[in-house]
Write a structure and sequence with these properties.
This protein is α+β, with helices and mostly antiparallel strands. The protein has helices at residues 2-60, 63-88, 92-112, 114-129, 169-174, and strands at 137-140, 143-150, 154-159, 164-168, 177-179. 65% of the residues lie in helices and 13% in strands.
């Protein structure tokens, strides 16, 4: 009785392994085509991102924004290639579940990193609109100084007291911003008091 159940167990395992091997051999051409398509999309993503980087740099003159958009374009092209490869292998159900999972994960990450995302979006918008550039003297949120570096998440401002202030981009984007270097001229009012005896 015990030998019979053990023999049945091994027979079930053998049948399962045999069906898996048969399925793998049957899907081998699809797997090869899927790998080739994914590699082609990887190569295309590199070419398209380089081309997009040059084009965006000419349009916006902002290295940070151009780099970010080129990286996003590359990721999108790679994701399209990955989903094409899964579809060729007959895993269209996996594609749908992956897309749904990516949407949920994206939503969760958006809520978790809301502050960082707001700074990033403000940095992209400021990179396109260019309210100031490196070397300009600006004042925002009680900070007055010279812009030393503009990043996607923050801006480095050197104050006239010799301190380096790291200001989040959302503060520069939300609040009133004074740029003293744009017009190249400035009027300063100095009140002068004279005593009555004079």
């Amino acid at each position: 009785m015990n030998n019979l159940s053990l023999e049945k167990f091994w027979q079930l395992i053998y049948e399962k392994m045999d069906s898996w091997a048969e399925l793998s051999i049957k899907n081998l051409p699809n797997l090869v085509v899927a790998i080739v398509i994914f590699v082609v999309f990887l190569f295309l993503s590199s070419i398209i991102s380089r081309w997009a980087l040059k084009l965006i740099k000419k349009a916006s003159h902002s290295t940070q924004v151009a780099g970010l958009l080129a990286a996003i374009i590359r990721l999108v092209v790679i994701a399209i290639g990955f989903f094409f490869a899964l579809d060729i292998m007959g895993l269209s159900g996996a594609v749908a579940s992956l897309l749904a999972g990516a949407g949920i994960i994206g939503l969760a990450i958006g809520f978790a990193f809301q502050d960082m995302t707001e700074n990033l979006i403000a940095g992209v918008v400021m990179g396109v609109r260019k309210p100031f550039k490196v070397g300009d003297i600006i004042e925002a949120d009680d900070t007055l100084g010279t812009v030393k570096q503009i990043n996607l998440r923050n801006t480095l401002i050197e104050t006239f007291y010799g301190q380096l202030c790291v200001t989040p981009n959302k503060i520069l984007f939300r609040n009133k911003l004074l740029n003293y270097s744009t017009l190249k001229k400035r009027r300063i009012e100095i009140p002068v008091g004279i005593s009555y005896a004079d």
